[in-house]
Amino acid sequence: MSEINTTPLVDVMLVLLIIFLIAVPVAIQTVEELEIPVFASSESDDKVENLLITVTTTDPEGRTPSTLNTAFTGATRDGECRIFLNNTTLVDSGELYDRAFERLDTIVTNAGGPDVIMQNPELIPQVHIRGDVNAPWRCVAGTIFNVQAAGYPTVGFISNPVDPN
């Protein structure tokens, strides 16, 4: 015989068809209208929020990255450093130190003072820096210096995973 026996294939397909004919209506009827509660977003009282900083530079024409300025062509190694707090607020190095210090001081005060916060390291916020691939090290190092001078003990980096292919 040079033909393939298709009887087992047809048997399996018929069994699967019967299973789906029974399972689909049951699955559809068991889920009724679902009411999802809506909550207002608020800052967590029990978990301290980390400080997110983005470091980049101006493009060759001196333009700053922005959602409003679409003419920005990308960071350059020779550009001026641009530091964004929480990805929105553009600050210079002096403002970065002042705002980081004020934020950490508020967190320490709300926790009950330095002695209380030192007993529970979970209350100490971290700094996460996302650096543009074209931002020079001087910009990133200056950012690290300012936040450590402001009192943040832990500074980490956020990176985008690279496709291995």
UniProtKB/TrEMBL annotation:
InterPro entries: ExbD
One Pfam assignment: ExbD
Residues forming coiled coils: none
Keywords recorded for this protein, A-Z: Cell membrane, Membrane, Protein transport, Transmembrane, Transmembrane helix, Transport
Signal peptide positions (record): none
Localization per record: Cell membrane
Transmembrane portions of the chain: 12-31
This protein's name: Biopolymer transporter ExbD
